[in-house]
Design goal:
single chain; Outer membrane efflux proteins (OEP); four-stranded antiparallel beta sheet; 12 helices; 66% helix; elongated
């Protein structure tokens, strides 16, 4: 076999191998995105968080800017001039000459308390901004989970309303058949029709909300999702740990990022007040000045170049600045009081939120269990009502109400589980203990085998060109 034929056969085998791989890949079902994958996308693409990071990067520059007043500074200048000198009525000749020169000065602050306290104030402000950024990063976990669960909640509501619509439709068909043979009155048909029409409206609303919440998640992550993993039924519903409200409050006082940021802001305000008070104090600078000048004009020493070096200590004492320094001191004092009140308000708010969320989580645990039992109770009640309707002891309205109660109980159970997850995350967020590990633990209880699929929006169904 010639080398050309060998190369051709090798290429054909390679193409066949690639084709087999592509077939295998295409035949594999696409896995639904889980909570952790959505969060990773949000970390990269959330515009609010990226804006916070950019804002922090800008705030960081306050430190080198304030420190610059304590570090040496070097400046230089140069000049040149041309002079034309005439002596009318004199025997002296006219003089035309050029003067030029340069000077450089090195300045180092020796004593400047205002600059020192301003530098420390800037460092505290950057620390506060760092805590604020960490709070935004922590809050992204909550926003991601909330947007994600809103999609799942919308799907459960759609499932509930769709099931209700189908059940009411079957009931309406049965009632119409009974009416046609004279077993029920026309009022049963009308009542069934009214309930069915309302069920259709609720299903349409749930359909629209389903698409809206998918869009909201896309706004957060910058990605359009087609499938999302559901929350598994195996998710444990347990009381918060530790089971002590005061322990959560104590932890929040030490770890809540907004409190830490407010404390740093207070520290910055105190140092800023000291800086403004120091504005009344003298400053001392050490300078070294080098001057070199060249003149073309005649002079006594018959020299055209002059070099000079000056070493100096400069003392500056502000005696009166039109009230400017005193006004800045009063301003700083008021800002310090403001920071104190904001810190106090933040602490009180955190205590309130911890207590409310701790109670909410404990209530959610009981509510989830109760609503799970309510499903079984509603199902038994529906079966009994349908039996009563068959034997004539119940009317069609009773049956329809029992159906609605069952479907509402099913949705309420799912809704209570989502509320439990969110309230627990909110509690940890306020306590300052929420981190990526909590999200990873929650992600263990997502189920990609039964995904929530994005529906075609109503505008796309109606052929609206703007939806394409």
């Amino acid at each position: 076999m010639t080398p050309l034929k060998v190369a051709t056969e090798n290429m054909k085998q390679a193409l066949r191998s690639i084709a087999v791989v592509l077939v295998v890949l295409i035949s594999q079902p696409l896995m639904a995105e889980d909570l952790l994958q959505v969060y990773e996308a949000a970390q990269e693409n959330d515009a609010i968080l990226r804006a916070s990071r950019a804002g922090f990067a800008a705030t960081e520059q306050a430190v080198p800017q304030a420190r610059s007043a304590l570090l040496p500074s070097l400046g230089a200048s140069a000049s040149t001039s041309w002079t034309e000198r005439e002596f009318p009525g004199s025997v002296l000749p006219d003089q035309n000459f050029n003067d030029h020169g340069w000077n450089a000065q090195l300045r180092q602050s020796v004593l400047n308390m205002e600059a020192w306290y301003s530098y420390r104030s800037a460092r505290a402000s950057v620390n506060a901004a760092e805590h604020a950024l960490a709070a935004d990063e922590q809050n992204l976990i909550v926003r991601t989970v909330q947007a994600y669960l809103n999609v799942l909640r919308a799907q459960d509501l759609l499932d509930s309303t769709s099931a209700e619509e189908a059940a009411v439709k079957r009931q309406l068909e049965q009632v119409q058949q009974r009416f046609e043979v004279g077993l029920v009155a026309i009022t049963d048909v009308l009542e069934s029709q009214a309930v069915y029409d309302n069920a259709v409206v609720r299903r349409i609303q749930a359909d629209g909300d389903h698409d809206i919440f998918f869009q909201s998640l896309s706004t957060l992550t910058g990605i359009t999702y087609e499938e999302l993993a559901r929350l598994s039924e195996e998710l444990p519903i347990v009381n918060p740990s530790p089971a002590d409200e005061s322990a959560w409050i104590e932890e929040a006082m030490q770890s809540n990022l907004n409190i830490l940021a407010a404390q740093e802001q207070l520290a910055a305000a105190r140092r800023n007040e000291r800086a403004r008070l120091a504005g009344h104090l003298p400053t001392v600078d050490a300078t070294v000045t080098q001057v070199s000048s060249v003149t073309g004009a005649p002079n006594f020493f018959n020299a055209d170049t002059t070099d000079q070096t000056v070493y100096a200590l400069e003392l500056n004492l502000p005696l009166y600045t039109g009230g400017f320094t005193n006004s800045r001191r009063k301003e700083a004092s008021a800002l310090k009081r403001q920071a104190q009140e904001l810190l106090l308000n933040q602490q009180r708010t955190v205590i309130r939120d911890i207590r409310n969320l701790y109670q909410a989580v404990a209530t959610d645990v009981v509510r989830v269990k109760a609503r799970f039992k309510a499903i079984e109770s509603s199902r038994s009640a529906l079966e009994a009502t349908e039996t009563g309707y068959e034997v004539g002891t119940r009317n069609v309205v009773d049956v329809l109400q029992a159906q609605q109660l069952l479907f509402r109980s099913q949705f309420d159970y799912a809704d209570s589980r989502y509320n439990y997850v969110l309230n627990l995350l909110f509690l940890k967020d306020v306590a300052g203990t929420l981190d990526d590990d909590d999200l990873a633990e929650l992600n263990k209880f997502t189920d990609s085998s039964n995904p929530v699929k994005r529906l075609v929006s109503l505008r796309q169904r109606s052929g609206d060109p703007s939806s394409q």
